[in-house]
Design brief:
2 copies of one chain form a homodimer. Chain A has about 100 residues and is α+β, with helices and mostly antiparallel strands. The first copy, chain A, contains 6 helices and 3 strands; from the N terminus they run H-H-H-E-H-H-E-E-H. The longest helix of chain A has 14 residues, at about 85-95. Chains A, B: Keywords: DNA-binding, Transcription, Transcription regulation.
Chain lengths: ~100, ~100
């Protein structure tokens, strides 16, 4: 776990908001047709954010690089979900350190 | 509480280390002559870090600006201590949000 990189990833409010949305996909992405167990489709996250596709792609890439989310590809789609274990490990470390 | 600014402040490992040192001043700054209740003298933090005075000053200024530490001036000395309430409020918010 690279705690510096995780904190940097979290310093952006859009990235924190994506993590919050992914906590409750049923409520936040009810219109997704694919099973939400796979994760949430990048396009849906994009739609909800109102930001450009490239901006959201780069935020998702940052969150994935530091391990806070994981992705699953199926055909032309990319689905993202939280990595609960990594998020909890990070919070535990922050609570311990600070 | 400006959570974005606090996270940015904490993304630097030296700043996190200063907060860790200030958690236990008796152990980490036993050589300080002034009462540790006032806080830890900037010069002592500087010495312990092995970094330049201007680097440490700027790290302390960032931590103070976001409210994680507070300072007390006495003559030529500046003493710093953790703002436990703000640190706890930040951790509570992160635990809740993430």
């Amino acid at each position: 776990m690279d705690i510096d990189e995780i904190i940097k990833a979290l310093s952006n409010p859009v990235r924190r908001e994506i993590l919050v949305w992914l906590k409750d996909p049923v409520t936040n992405f009810p219109e997704q047709e694919h099973a939400l167990e796979l994760g949430v489709c990048a396009g849906k996250i994009n739609q909800r954010s109102g930001l450009s596709q490239s901006t959201i792609s780069s935020h998702l890439a940052v969150l994935q690089r530091v391990g806070l989310i994981s992705s699953h590809r199926m055909g032309q789609w990319a689905f993202f979900k939280r990595n609960e274990e990594a998020i909890q490990a990070f919070l535990d470390e922050m609570n311990k350190q600070l």
